[in-house]
């Protein structure tokens, strides 16, 4: 029989664990930033593996995902353009094609699809990799050699992930516009150059900063959450569990950041964004 | 004043000192009141039966764990629990550690595994580091496997790579957890020779934990025996004299 005390006890434990995890993730994030600043100091001569580790992460997260992101960007862009060109004139808003495309694909669909793909592909792999390293005592071996796991594993991953996310988001936007219009031209024969001009004319520097900000935040969330859960593994049975957990928590954190932080922040800083956030 | 005090502590006679260390994991007592101290030039082998917490005890000795035991573990004359994390990491940069499972980094090849501590700690250029590692690879006859990942190595090869990685930084202290486990005869002799070579250098300390009597005989270090949760030490290392056990 489930007693009331059990329910409250479990709920309490969940809340305490949540609080601890959040605090530890903030610590990990701050340690990573400190480690990054140390490496960027021109007088610092240690940690020569930094560039190699960052290159490895960019190769795995960014370069190897190029085809996947490219195909999905093409399909997303093509679908939205075909639907917009076919349906918008019916509502009398055909001239707003560029703005709608910018808001829908470049600002929203692009960052969220990129985030989901990178999280599903690289974030989970990173969690499993670090979890296995923990189980096989490779992390302990690093500590025994006097190497901080944050310096050697987390910080290069963080840098690589942020850089990859920036590149992938801009790549998604460009492919969605150029490739999407090309797909639309093939299927419904639209005047390609006119629509291309409309789409690019509607994009401002604000959009560039907006994508940049979203990319940096997404990269930070994926790398820190994946590394946190990967490093918290105690035994081999936990590895598969933390992989799923990291995916879910990453999504949750991104939604929280999106809804609370970005909306509030941009509404105050950029009046232009008010119309967008409602 | 503080600096003088710190120097005094660092210049303590014993680099590694355990005082009344008692370790229990989930009500299972691993060891009780273990005390010994090692100064420069001391080399000790602890004979410890399998499955009784050998690796845990090694982690306690090296300061890799601070939570599983009661008592005091001093490194360089100061309680390991009182060191700041960055100081511990600096001290460990001059410490070699060979794990029972070798614990090579799985996505690095043999060359990168050996170069890893140098790349992180050393002020040398990448070219110098490559030269040092290449020399070590030739010395350890690892030329043919230097580009292989750890998963493609045999147990003996992994162990030799682990020993090479531990010794590449010219450590003062060498901890070895079952260095002979899974070695063939040839590799056994090779590893023993390397450990003896290290022990013959000035100002070094070696602590070996093993279940292998043949390794104890081959190394010819003083032997302490772990028996009935207690450590029976040879004369220079502890007060106990009941070596007949």
Characterization of the model:
The complex is a heterodimer of chains A (278) and B (245). Helices cover 85% and strands 0% of the residues of chain A. The longest helix of chain A has 40 residues, at 149-188. Chain A has 278 residues and is mostly helical. Chain A has helices spanning 4-40, 50-62, 66-87, 97-135, 138-144, 149-188, 192-201, 205-231, 236-269, 272-277. In chain A, helix 4 crosses helix 7 (192-201). The N and C termini of chain A lie far apart (49 Å). The longest helix of chain B has 16 residues, at 185-200. Chains A and B meet through helix 4 and helix 5 of A and helix 3 and helix 4 of B.
Regarding CATH, which class of chain B? Alpha Beta
Order of neighbouring strands in the sheet with most strands of chain B:
6-7-8-3-9-10
Q: Report the helical percentage of chain B.
A: 25-40%
Terminus-to-terminus distance of chain B: 48 Å
Q: Please state the second-level CATH architecture of chain B.
A: 3-Layer(aba) Sandwich
Termini Cα gap of chain A: 49 Å
Q: Sheet with the most strands of chain A? A: none
